[in-house]
Amino acid sequence: MDLLVREAHPNDAEAIVGIWNPIIATGLYTAVDTLLTVEAEREYILNFPQRGVFHVAVCRADHKVVGFQSMEPFATYTHAFDHVGVIGTYVDLSYRRQGIGKCLFDATFEAARRKGYEKIFTYVRADNVAALASYLRRGFQIVGTAQRHAKLNGTYVDEIIIERFL
């Protein structure tokens, strides 16, 4: 698939919610259990941290947003963590396994280095084997497991803590 990876803009909010909400609705791939609104996503993009990295992957053939990845500073209340970002990666359910994640990671790693990040950190649901494998292929390493970290529909879900040094 021929992709353009670019910074997210407020007018991408509808497309991002169109990817996010079906993922949330499955109850399988993320610990997020609350559907998003286009307006809330637009506000999120407008207020995104200046040091953050927020990319969308756009299919060049039809200009459709097929994935997105965001990375925010780990903490803004102290400079001790200025070198650490927290990342999230989401690909449209009907476009998985087509290299979209790889393109997003490549662009985000480069932008993160330019912005002074040295480490990227995140959590992946322990039962989301495909997502964990994707992150591990990109050089992330498992740090540990946050047991019973999320409670979804009355069921506890462990989250795998992973990190990657740039």
Ends apart, CA distance between termini: 26 Å
Q: What value does the average pLDDT take?
A: 96
> Count of helical segments?
4
Helix content: 25-40%
Q: Sheet with the most strands?
A: 7 strands, mixed
**Contiguous uncertain segments of 5+ residues:** none
The spatial strand order of the largest sheet comes to 1-2-3-4-5-7-6
Rough outline: globular
Structural class, please?
alpha+beta
**Element-level helix/strand string:** EHHEEEHEHEE
- In angstroms, what is the radius of gyration? 15 Å
* Beta strand count: 7
**Fraction in beta strands:** 35-45%
Can you walk me through this structure?
By secondary structure, the chain is α+β, with helices and mostly antiparallel strands. The protein is built from 4 helices and 7 strands, in the order βααβββαβαββ. It has a 7-stranded mixed β-sheet. A hairpin with a 2-residue loop joins β6 and β7. α1 crosses α2. The longest helix is centred in the middle third of the chain and has 15 residues. The radius of gyration is 15 Å and the shape is globular. The model has no long low-confidence stretch (mean pLDDT 96).
